[in-house]
Here is the input.
Amino acid sequence: MSSTEQQGRRGFLKKAATAAAAVVAPGVVLHALPATAAPRTEAVNAKVRWGMLIDANKCADGCNDCVTACDKENGLDLVDMPEGADEAHWERQRPRWIRQVKLKDNLSGKITNLPMMCQHCEKPPCVDVCPTGASFRRADGIVMVDRHICIGCRYCMMACPYKARSFIHAEVAEKLTHTPRGKGCVESCNLCVHRLDNGGRSTACQDACKHQAIVFGDLNDPDSAVSQALKKYPSVQIRADLKLNTGVRYSNI
Amino acid sequence: MKKIHFSEWGIESPRYWGMLAVLGAIIAIAGGAVYYMEHNGHWVTGMTNQVVWGMPHVFAIFLIVAASGALNVASIGTAFGKKAYQPLGRLSALLAIALLAGGLAVLVLDLGQPGRLLVAMTHYNFKSIFAWNIYLYTGFFAIVAFYIWFMMDHRMKAWYKPVGIFAFVWRLLLTTGTGSIFGFLVARQGYDAAILAPMFVIMSFAYGLAVYLLVLMFVFKADGREIGAGLLKRLKNLLGVFVAAVLYFTLVYHLANLYGTENHAYEAFILRDGGIYTLLFWGGWVLAGCLIPLGIIYHPALGNSRSGIVAAATLVILGGFATVYVIVIGGQAFPMAMFPGKTIVASGFFDGVNGQPMLYAPSLPEILLGLGGVALVLLLTFIGIRMLRFLPTTLSDEVADPQHAKP
Here is the structure.
């Protein structure tokens, strides 16, 4: 048997296997779902409040790992620039859940780096203003958007003091099952809710941060790493003057 | 004052249908623009994740604000019992409904999911002023429709005044609600001010009356009806008072901001360094929208000429658009103060690096949608006055002015 024939056969077998997997996999996933979904039978409750502490001292200049990880985890990297769009303009329109911000102190000139995202307020202005209730806060502190009843009015984006939200400006061809998205709705960081609801206890940004600048966990549990860190180090809320009691806190800014 | 008779708009058919055709064509083009924007998504517009409300909102808010103001003429006749204004009431109410319909059409057609409008009728969050506005707007349609009925039907005369007063109170609430869309936003420096609600009310007085004056003068001239000089003088003087009030509220709003250091950066942006926003503030809002109209209205010669009044009303409307643009877009273009005492020197999401404003340039489809809303207002008004008896046969001073001295 010639090597080209062999390769052809291998290629065929590979393709056949892939095709079979593609046909069978959804069924397997469907069968597997009840097992992973088991914890979800219990309603989300206020015993837990998810939150995080970000140490700006550890956040490295030029590092973008948390942003890349978030984009991948939540399928934001799958949102393609529409054909014919102006690149610079599209950059202002593409969705972002987390971003790197570099600050300079006006007095001392001290430089601080930190990631910004939805701050998961206890009293979120985006939830207050949403006419339909699509913007909502879960009992466990996660602020998110119900994409079924978001009418795309963008009032929440006007109201958010952290500029944390993105509007989907274009058709999205490919999306992840756990993060559906559609043109004309608003979305923002949901603390990787799909992980938490399936028993996970970390967010993609935390996992990606090799500088350990992000500590995520249950703010209501005094023994959690985030509660311990908050107890140990002084921290602040961004725009604390608004008294929103954010779930995301920062130290060293 | 003699008995007032009303009649349908009597312009020649070809002219009437010609105007409807032109307006219909503008609306059709706007429809095409909506299809283009909704089919592609908002990336084809100038709006971004930084400036989330654009030109459609400027048109929509102007028209909605003017709607409640247009009803004022009727309210002065009914709620305040000024007889000279009573013959003007029907057109005032019709124009109010038409303006609101035009504004709302623009607003809902810009939604990311306009097909889900029904959701906005079935899911309510009563802490949202938007949700309240849905009731205030639909309620306005219903109340003003009854108001028109009671104005036209003598059998309902007993209800004319109560409904007129109710409509007046409702329209005050409505514009308070519209102003509060911005007044309640704590996040942004340019908003978060209770004065925005009464300022919107006073803006509505001016814009609504300016629109009313132009429409009244046009439709009366078109079929040869007379408007007395005395009546016109009343209306233009009233416009002068409203415009002066807008200027006063503008002054108080900015003085209050200038007093507190935390707002200095925002004030410097609007008043001095904001480029197009500064230009529109001084040139549009203050000069074209307030000072020049005031100069015309109270000028002994210009103020008494019809072309002077038309010019003043037109400038109030253009200045009004500039005002709403500065409030809506300027308020978003100014970077949010997230880190007091610090400057953002780099950002992955356009957070106003080094204090730079957010960029926005209106796109053609957005403007076409807005103009479609304006065309819809005129279309509805023209059809209304053609079909039903909205217009007094004459508004000459000897007929319509109770204080007119007999020669």
Observations:
- Chain B touches chain A through 50 residues (CB under 8 Å).
- Residues 6-400 of chain B form a domain with the Formate dehydrogenase/DMSO reductase fold fold (CATH 1.20.1630.10).
- Chain B is about 70% helix and 0% strand.
